[in-house]
Amino acid sequence: MTEDNSQELYDRALSVMPGGVNSAVRAAIEPYPFFVRKGEGGHVIDADGNRYIDWVMGLGPLLLGHDLPEPVQASIQQKASEGPMYGTPTPVEVDLAEFVVRHVPSVEKIRFVNSGTEATVSAVRLARGYTGRNKVVVMQGGYHGAQESTLVEGDAENPRPSSAGIPQSFAEHTLPVPFNDEDAIREVFDEHGDDIAAVLTEPILGNYGIVYPEDGYHEFLREITDEHGSLLIFDEVITGFRVGGLGCAQSEFGVTPDLTTFGKIIGGGFPVGAIGGRAEIVEHFTPSGDVFQAGTFSGHPVTMAAGLETLQFAAANDVYDHVNGLGERLRSGLTDILADQAPSYTVTGTDSMFKVIFTREGPSGVQRTPEDASGDDREQGPDSLEEQCEAGCRQNATCPRYDYCPKNAADVKNAETERWRRIFWGR
Ligand code: PMP
């Protein structure tokens, strides 16, 4: 019933959906997620009538906010009223493919799918099919969707599934290494070089940290993959058409991957994923090649229209200056607040990405390695604590600033990490 408030909706949802949600992270808000009735510009309004500033924007897809510009809206509505899908090609998917090929130099051909997960599944299969090899190198702390080849934790010596339901024999073909660690990559190539189909990485780790690549790291990945005949795959599901504007993060770093996975913004707020790259490789997808790939909803006309109009709007207006400026304003405002309220926390991010992490500042204001992003606040030591503590009682859980206390920040951080782990992995 639409009159229910969030708590009532969650109660109903719990009895008919696992964990009450359709994606694990949505249960992160306690004691229950707020159920959204509608978006308005930069806000969302929940079932209880509360109005929130929306920093999340659908977890990334909404580059233009909730109030879509007129041409975007008109195109979506027209496509929805015309069918809305046919199971056969339509003109708008060619238009969007041409747009992406024109703006992202590494992409000569592209296949559209329906989610970021589907994109990385297909990219890994394509890399394996193209090279005739089995193994895939991934970055510890990276995320590539809910798929068997990348839900793997541990290290290259001892990879293991990070979710129930994935056989250990699958995980053995995945080699997790620390991000920004060239020696670790050299070691896996020394040991498995002949069987490595691809190195798969987010250009900037967006799901951990945010962790920025060291200068030269992506160039190094490009060289070592070339040297061994492996593919370099950039997962730009988050960064694509957000970081580096229409050229994506790869243009910012000046590195050309063999394959790129897209999602989120490229569908203008509708379910989407895509795999783009060198024509010679992408042609290995069926029907031109032998790597099977298909999908009922792939290239859905409403999604293609929303993606195309969104990107065209961004190309014709100063959208990236605007959202990046908002990102900068938000990061610097948060940095000021944290300097006062929680000096052991850090604001990270770039362009229109941001995050607050429960640790002190990394070497250059952005976290460069996963270790920095999970750094231990206790190093801060009691002396600096005394200086920062006006009330002198920071260890008291009844203190209103308890959550910000550098002394117990490690506990708070651990509790947060545990809570997220439980939400994400159900354990
Ligand atoms: N790759 C990256 C880098 C992601 O951040 C995500 C999801 N946020 C995915 C892949 C999976 O995308 P989806 O949730 O659309 O399946």
From TrEMBL:
Query: Any idea which residues bear N6-(pyridoxal phosphate)lysine here?
Result: K264
The protein's matches in PROSITE patterns, at most eight in alphabetical order, are given as: AA_TRANSFER_CLASS_3
Region Disordered, annotated ranges: 360-386
Of the GO CC terms on this record, one is: cytoplasm
The yes or no answer to whether the keyword Cytoplasm is present is: yes
Q: Does the keyword Isomerase apply?
A: yes
| Family affiliation | Belongs to the class-III pyridoxal-phosphate-dependent aminotransferase family. HemL subfamily.
Q: What is this protein called?
A: Glutamate-1-semialdehyde 2,1-aminomutase
Which gene codes for it?
hemL
